[in-house]
Every structure is written in C-alpha cells, then in structure tokens.
C-alpha cells in the first residue's frame, strides 16, 4: 500500500512539474508597442536564434517574472523593412516577435500618444459592455486624468490598454473589444 501511494505521489509530482514547465515556456514576456498597437510576445516565440541577433544587452535574455512593457521600432534599412513586411505577410514573425528591434517604451511615447484613441470610441465596439466603458470614463474623470486607449493584440483575445494622455503611462488593461 505504501509503495502504491509513493508511486501515485511521484506521478502526480512529475505531472505538476511538467505543467509548471509548460506554463513557464509559454508565458508572456513582453507587452510590445509597435506602430499603432500593443502586442504580447511570448517566451516560446522568441528563440535563442532571435536573441543572438540582439545588440542591446537589456533584451538579450527574457524576463523571468511578468511581462515587461517595451516598444519595437521598425528598421531604418529599406531592405530590412521589406524583408520584415514580406516575412510577416507570408506567415512569419512580425515586429513584436523580433527582439533585435526592441527599444525602451519611453523612446516611443510620442508615437503612443499619436496613435491613442478617445475612450468614448470603445462604446462603438462594446455595445453589450457600455456600463464598463462608462465606469472607466467616470473613474478617470473623477481622478482628473486625461486618458485614451490602444488595442492590445493577444493570441486568444484582444484587450484594451488605457494610457495617460499626457505621459503615455499605461494605467490598466481592460477586457473590452478594441475594434470590430
């Protein structure tokens, strides 16, 4: 009986460790602003080969705990831009999955503010969630914070990122539809 329980305990422990490992390698590591929206970059999307191309030491390894907010800037070289465009159109990686183009979020704040949309526009895309949108508007009006939103493209669902219109600081992420 003791041996049977020990075997069951070992199998359960192995299954738990396997599950934890699977979650760890598929974790979101970056919230990447690129062009006009945020994207999630996952650990299993960023391979060692991609990390080998990174020149900025800050992005040569993946964060261990929680996603880090960063930005990705398009390459300056026309050939590299075309290669990126045609590669992503043919099903390859897009800018958020290419760490060699990562830059600190603070360097792209002007673009974030330029691309941000008024919070009221969310009513158009969330007819069944108007109370949530109204609550957000009321909350930030009471706090006297001018806010806007940007879409966050995820694998399973898309979210809304609420940003401060003065500083581009991310205030929160909300489970609302950012587009149709």
What are the salient characteristics of this protein?
alpha+beta, 8 strands
Largest sheet: 8 strands, mixed
Low-confidence stretches: none
Shape: globular
State the distance separating the first and last CA atoms.
59 Å
Helical run tally: 6
Radius of gyration: 20 Å
**How many strand units?**
8
**What percent strand?**
15-25%
Overview of the structural elements:
By secondary structure, the chain is α+β, with helices and mostly antiparallel strands. The protein is globular, with a radius of gyration of 20 Å. The chain has helices at residues 2-25, 48-52, 78-89, 109-115, 122-125, 130-142, and strands at 28-34, 37-42, 68-72, 102-104, 117-118, 147-153, 159-164, 170-174. A hairpin with a 5-residue loop joins strand 7 (159-164) and strand 8. Strands 1, 2, 3, 4, 5, 6, 7 and 8 form an eight-stranded mixed β-sheet that branches. The chain starts with a helix and ends in a 6-residue tail after the last strand. It is built from six helices and eight strands, in the order αββαβαβαβααβββ.
């Amino acid at each position: 009986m003791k041996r049977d329980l020990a075997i069951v305990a070992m199998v359960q422990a192995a299954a738990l460790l396997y599950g934890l490992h699977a979650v760890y390698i598929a974790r979101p590591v970056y919230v990447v602003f690129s062009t006009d929206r945020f994207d999630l970059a996952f650990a299993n999307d960023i391979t060692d080969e991609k990390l080998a191309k990174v020149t900025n030491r800050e992005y040569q390894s993946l964060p261990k705990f929680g996603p880090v907010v960063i930005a990705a800037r398009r390459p300056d070289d026309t050939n590299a831009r075309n290669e990126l465009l045609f590669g992503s159109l043919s099903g390859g990686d897009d800018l958020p999955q290419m760490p060699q183009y990562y830059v600190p979020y603070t360097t792209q704040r002007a673009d974030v503010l330029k691309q941000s949309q008024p919070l009221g526009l969310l009513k158009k895309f969330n007819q069944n969630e108007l109370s949530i949108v109204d609550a957000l508007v009321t909350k930030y009006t009471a706090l006297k914070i001018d806010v806007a939103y940007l879409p966050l493209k995820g694998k399973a669902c898309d979210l809304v990122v609420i940003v401060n219109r003065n500083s581009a600081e991310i205030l929160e992420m909300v489970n609302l539809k950012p587009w149709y």
